[in-house]
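DM from R.C. (forwarded with permission)

"hey, sorry to bug you on a friday — could you get me a structure for this? deadline for the figure draft is monday and I only need the backbone to look sensible"
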Amino acid sequence: MTRTVNGEMLFKDREKEMLRKMLWQVADFCGAEVLTYCVMTNHFHVLLHIPEQVTLSDTELMRRYKVLYPKPTKFQSASTKVMESQLEAGGEEGDEIRRKLRARMGDVSEYMKTVKQRFSVWYNRSHQRYGTLWADRFKSVLVEGQGNPLQTMAAYIDLNPVRAGIVDDPKDYRFCGYAEAVAGVVEAKRGLIHVWSDHGARRIDSALRAHRSLIFGQRASEPSLSEMTRKRALKVLDQEDGHLPKAAILRCRVRYFTDGAILGSAEFVRGFTGAWQMERGRKHPPKVNAMRGTDWGDLAVIQGLRRQLFG
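My reply, with the result:
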């Protein structure tokens, strides 16, 4: 997740549409899979799956490079021809091109860097603006790549426009992965099927049913946020051992999904505590914290977030 500088509300439909296109475009270049996403007025979320990297042919490297420049300028066209000839000739120049292109692929940080830089250039040029567009570095959470952790994170991201009061149903908000999947966009359907694949979903209709059950609650008796005001929900959650139905709590801003650092089963999170400790130079290993506020199933995080968990 990344936010505009000072949280300024900069994106209208035109800007959201351009950013939406870039999220898919850069994913194709980087070899990443967008499982779902949501573009809001001052921030965006994207849930990525990074497949194991394989050796790419020169033809595939150039295809991906051209994805970034679907309408190249004369200079870019000339530069592409030079790159193709150097790759074909081999030698040190060809090897250097391969190295530079591959270094930008298969990595979340490179993906976010490319999206943010390209969108910043477009936005500033389109609005006669200069200077920083994005606030700081993006926030990232490592999510266990299957089952409840992946499904819950995807639902939380798709519910962004519902939490903001823009729509009652995320299928009516065109700038999120769920709405694109409902509309029949192939890449979005593929992402949702991936999210629910271990749930037996092999077709988009079964994936959509499973996703809606998580978003709206599996039982009619579960209150939605329309029946329980946000203020009342936060009051319940702020109480000691406050507890809400999962479908209701997903309509609140839950910091586990942006600041939890690592999210998954306790076993999954525990497997990364050593690396997390070394990366941050911590003296003591972190605890594995069960998530609070509802019946999250097997979900745990590495950041306990005891204060201001909900907001």
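R.C.: lifesaver. DSSP finds 15 helices and seven strands in the chain.
me: no worries. The two ends are 16 Å apart (CA to CA).
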